[in-house]
Amino acid sequence: MKLGLEDDAELVGELVQESKEHLSNIEPDLLLLEEKGADVSPDLVNRVFRAMHSIKGGFSFLGFMNITNLAHVMETVLSRVRDGDLTATPDVVDALLAGSDKLTELIDNYAESEGISIAKHLESLEVFRTGSGAAPTEKDKISEKEETEAPETKEPEKKEEKPSAQVEASEVLAGAKEPALNAPVSGNEKGKSVAIVESLRVKLDLLNSLMNLAGELVLTRNQIVSQMNQRASVIMGGSALQEKIGDLTAQSSKSVIDGANALGASLNGEFEALVEKEFKRVEDRFFGLLSSPLSEVQSIKSVVQQVDFLTSDMQEKIMATRLQPVGAVFSKLPRIVRDLTRSLNKQVKLETSGEDVELDKSIIEALSDPLTHLLRNCLDHAIEIPDEREKAGKLPEGKVEVAAYHEGDQVIIKIADDGRGINPDAVKGKAVEKNVITQEEAGLMSDKKAQELIFAPGFSMAAKVTGVSGRGVGMDVVKTNIEKLGGTIQLDSSVGRGTVVLLKLPLTMAIISSLLVEVRGRQFAVPQSSLDDIVRIRAEDVAKRVEVLGDSAVIRQRGKLLPLIRLSDVLGMQNRIKNPKSGELIEDNRNRIVDKRQKPLKSIFKSMFAEIENESEESASEASTAVPSDLLAKRSGKERRKNTRSAMHILVLKVGIHRFGLVVDELLNNEEIVVKPLSSFLKKCKCYGGATILGDGKVAMILDPTGIANYMEMKFTDVEQENLAQENLDAKKQEVESQRLLMFKNGTEENFVMNIDLVSRIDKVPATDIECVDKKEFIQYQGKSLRVLRLHDFLPVSKPETDPEIMYVIIPKLVKHKLGIIASEVLDVANTDSKLNTESVSGLGMLGSSIIDGKLSIFVDIYSLFESAEPEHFKHTTSGKLLNGKRILLAEDTAFFRHVTIKYLEGAGCEVDFAENGEKAWNMLNSDTKYDMLLTDINMPRLNGIELTKKVRSSSTLKNLPVVACTSLGFERDRELGLSAGIDAYEMKLDKERLVKTILQVFEEKGGGNV
Fold it and tell me: Does the pLDDT value for residue 643 go beyond 70?
């Protein structure tokens, strides 16, 4: 029989809901069947079989035969798998999954399901149902019909009072108590009692109503607290109460004095004054008590705190009823991975965790599409085919991890893969090709900024349009949808290693934490999730901090330019300022944030890419003439704005990867607010994301940073260009590593310098303590004689006319035989990135010269100096032969260390090429030139020594190349990192003896050359 839908709509609705739950559990179980193959657990097959039987039975009694027939055929195939007659091969699972998808479609449209064809799916399942391709016979159809109707005839007598359809539906609903998705099922479960958690199905409308009531309760709580925080005197009448009590105390004072006079007391003026004073004191004390907030009254305070606690607790409990585990979304991912890997011929393992982490139902529903797209992106773009992975030294099977976890008051969804990563150079090229950025911007852009271009509208790295990707939509939609949920998206990718995407989501969107601000006497709420920072600029600093770039006001925040707009300008409100003396709002005649006398910033970006010199000069000229000279004259002198009321309050708001500053009048306080949807009259106001009712009963609009940026048509290009140019400039500065130099004098003429890492100690010595033996000078040092050298005896430098009474002895380290260098004066220790000039000054004991603090300074080469002074201790006789002809690549970014090390190596017979950074060194290693060793610094720009070594070790052609690290850092942690990366040896810079010895040792261990 077939019940009419109108007969019991509630029963049909319950059955549809239960069937959907069964289908959501069937899909992952089918994938597990495929994974287990012939080793499948009987309990797993039974679980899928019972779910399909429940669907078939319920819709059979309601008369939906298309759903019934398809479910029955699938049930029969599962029965054969359970009995061992059929193995769950990929083809079998393909047919069952396709049938499950069709059942979902039929159940979603159950009213029209009889008109939807299922012939194709029955045909694909038939071969597995019967074991042959033959169509079902008439006898089969009859037996199927009998089996379908059989449960109706077996109705227990004790349930006769129920209509048969209702009884069967109850049995179907009872089937919902099957094991949960991926619940552990063992063969020993028989006979064990299973703890069942009691639950009750509640309509979503009721939950929504409860949520609205919870919001109203929070508003009421806020209003109670607000009222309790007011002064009692204000609540009880304010000035009228004060006047009335004042009259009463005056009358009481007069009555006391009149009473005393009536008793015949001899009174004077002092007594009257004393009485009036006492009554006045009582009056002040009374008003002092009334001026305190009511919430401070102990009996009221405890009640308010209890109301606050209960409200918060009730709100959290009601909110929890709308929370759902993210596992509901995660459960769909294995099917996506399975289908895509089969179509893309890839091997991918999906790992999920944190399925029990809960989010609001509305967020869960909106999360499904972005998460699906990110996963498809991983499989299509990130994970390589097996052959490509093996060539890169990876396992053929790629890995994708999807995890959920709590972080503060947010939920983090992590999607990570071990694929090829995002190539920033390739992204830049594609972005320039699609006119997303200019060639100049690409040249300045950092790798991280370039990778984030994948979120740009219309951007795609796919070479051609396929069913998976390439249409230029997707990642920008993902970003937009996540931001609509009040969340953010972060990207971290490393070429060759993989990509990690983090989705940061709020627990709920109904009640949020916000910052209340005031503009022109009106209050607004700013969601805390949109707030990146708060900046307060003192009145006297406003003119200095706020600058102008083009037509925009900007400030420098953490080294970057931040564009500014006033909220009053956004909303078209009249600009007013507070009178410094009275505090009253008065009209503000300044129409711009930035002072009109402020000189415009000179563009770093334009100056870096000016094609001709006079273009830069012209720009500078325009900048200088943009400000009238008379106004500049007025600018001189002390800043007039000093009152604290004139301070500038700036909210730094997030719009995707961009930031902008919103100027407001006052910052009020943080408050938990209930988000109310905008009315139809305000739907077109893009600057608002909703409204809320404050504790004082006033309505405050909730600001939407993205809407404000779009409404003001904010173009972040100019600011981003300047920030990129500044980053590029800073990066170039960092490429030259600074060094600490000891500056000293030998006489009165030349300045000498030594790297401080070469200095063991400096001792003060009276000139009389220096003794001469056989034309050599010595001092007593640590109980022994130490030879000391005067530079003018070995170097072509001036000799001092007289020796000072106190001399300084510089004792170097990293030498095998200690000697001291005499200095007449120690000047300073300076940090400098000055380059070493080896042409103007050179010779024995001199590395070269440099201009430091405006003076020519000579770098002392202690090794050649000491070799000249005591050749018997420092001359080498064998290293030159052993290392002769070895070609070594030196990766070193500091010119001084580079020059010194090259000199050491060439002195040992090596041929040396050098690279200023790790990236250049990597390119040179992959050139036609063959090297016997890589000698690398650790801290370098673009690619550090550890990263460079890892690339060498992962290369099929370079993996056996000897690598020695030469660094000025002696920390054990750095040494361990280097050795774990594949560095063969780790030595200190400037230690010539140990460096040459270590290089020889590594060649011996590696069997290099003739060593």
Answer: no
- Are residues 935 and 888 in contact, defined by beta-carbon separation less than 8 angstroms? yes
> Could you tell me the pTM of the whole model?
0.50
Closest CA to 164 of 300, 30, 268, 8: 8
Q: Where are the beta strands (DSSP E) in 185-310?
A: none
What are 988's strand-pairing partners?
Answer: 967
The second-level CATH assignment, the architecture, of 880-1006 is 3-Layer(aba) Sandwich (3.40)
Phi/psi at 258 (5° precision): -65, -40
Q: Where are the domains of the chain?
A: 9-177, 204-321, 325-422+461-493, 511-724, 737-873, 880-1006
Nearest to 330 by CA among 414, 396, 409: 414
Task: Output the DSSP codes for 662-674.
Answer: EEESEEEEEEEEE
Is residue 763 helix, strand or coil? strand
pLDDT > 80? residue 188: no
156 phi and psi angles, rounded to 5 deg: -60, 145
Burial 311-338 (b: 16+ CB within 10 A, else e): beebbeebbeebeebbbbbbbebbbebb
For residue 165, pLDDT beyond 50: no
Orientation of helix 90-108 relative to helix 119-130, angle to 10°: 140
**866-915: pLDDT as tens digits:** 888 888 776 654 454 667 888 999 998 877 778 778 887 887 888 999 99
Rounded Cα–Cα distance for residues 566 and 564 (Å): 7
Lowest mean pLDDT among 22-36, 293-307, 308-322, 608-622: 608-622
Alpha helix positions (H), 745-894: 862-869, 871-874, 879-883
* H or E segment to which residue 912 belongs: strand 911-915
CA distances from 133 to 124, 126, 128, 333, 686 (A): 9, 7, 8, 33, 61
Q: Cβ contacts of residue 373 below 8 Å, gap of 6+?
A: 474, 475, 477, 478
Q: How far apart are CA 297 and CA 345, in angstroms?
A: 73
Tell me, which fold does domain 325-422+461-493 have in CATH?
Heat Shock Protein 90 (3.30.565)
Place of tokens 């109301």: 307
Identify the pLDDT of residue 593. Answer: 67
CB distance 371 to 359 below 8 Å: no
d(Cα 990, Cα 815) in Å, to the nearest integer? Answer: 9
Least confident of 192-196, 236-240, 385-389: 192-196
| DSSP line for 141-160 | HHHHHHHHHHHHHT--GGGT
- Would you tell me how many other CB atoms lie within 10 Å of the CB of residue 621? 11
Q: 3.90.190.20, 2.40.50.180, 3.40.190.10, 2.60.120.280: which CATH number matches 737-873?
A: 2.40.50.180
User: 349-387 in b/e burial notation, b at 16+ Cβ within 10 A?
Assistant: ebebebbebbbbbebbebbeebbebbbbbbbbbbbbebe
Selected from 1.10.3210.10, 3.40.920.10, 1.20.120.160, 3.40.50.12640, the CATH number assigned to the domain covering 9-177 reads 1.20.120.160
Which are the contacts of 298, defined by CB distance < 8 A and separation ≥ 6? none
Percent of the chain with pLDDT over 90: 6
- pLDDT of 628 over the 50 cut: no
SS3 readout for 379-433: HHHHCCCHHHHHHCCCCCCEEEEEEEEEECCEEEEEEEECCCCCCHHHHHHHHHH
CA 411 to each of CA 477, 504, 605: distance values in angstroms, whole numbers, following the listed order: 20, 6, 39
Give dist(CA 319, CA 985) in Å, integer: 59
Q: How many CA atoms lie within 13 Å of 417's alpha carbon, on the beta-carbon side?
A: 28
Closest CA to 837 of 817, 826, 827, 852: 852
CA distance 291 to 834: 67
Half-sphere exposure (CA, 13 Å, Cβ side) for 978?
25
Q: Is residue 580 predicted with pLDDT exceeding 50?
A: yes
